[in-house]
């Protein structure tokens, strides 16, 4: 159910996975987390983004890595 928060649309951000209803890519969220931002700081900075959106971004990435194997 979390994955329903992530959408793919060739017309939005060149088809990269994004948080539904935003132009924030999963890649961007992961980059923020990787550089030390907390989920709470991301939620404060980007209106409408929830903890579930961040969890969905992580889950989407995990699924993508599993498909590579």
Overview of the molecule:
There is one protein chain. This protein has helices at 26-34, 39-45, 51-68; strands at 6-7, 18-19. The chain has 3 helices and 2 strands, in the order ββααα. By secondary structure, it is mainly alpha-helical. Helix 1 (26-34) packs across helix 3 (51-68). The protein is globular.
Overall 3D form: globular
- pLDDT < 50 stretches: none
Class per helix and strand makeup: mainly alpha
* Helix content percent band: 40-55%
The sequence of SSEs as H and E is EEHHH
Distance between the termini: 23 Å
Count of alpha and pi helical runs: 3
Detail the topology: elements first, then pairings.
Blueprint (H helix, E strand, L loop, with lengths): L5 E2 L10 E2 L6 H9 L4 H7 L5 H18 L1
List keywords for this structure.
49% helix, mainly alpha, 2 strands, globular, two-stranded antiparallel ribbon, single chain
């Amino acid at each position: 159910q979390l994955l329903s928060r992530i959408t793919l649309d060739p017309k939005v951000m060149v088809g990269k996975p994004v948080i539904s209803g935003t132009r924030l890519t999963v890649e961007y969220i992961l980059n923020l987390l990787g550089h030390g931002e907390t989920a709470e700081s991301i939620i404060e900075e980007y209106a409408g983004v929830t903890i579930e959106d961040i969890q969905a971004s992580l889950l989407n990435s995990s699924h993508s890595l599993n498909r590579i194997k």
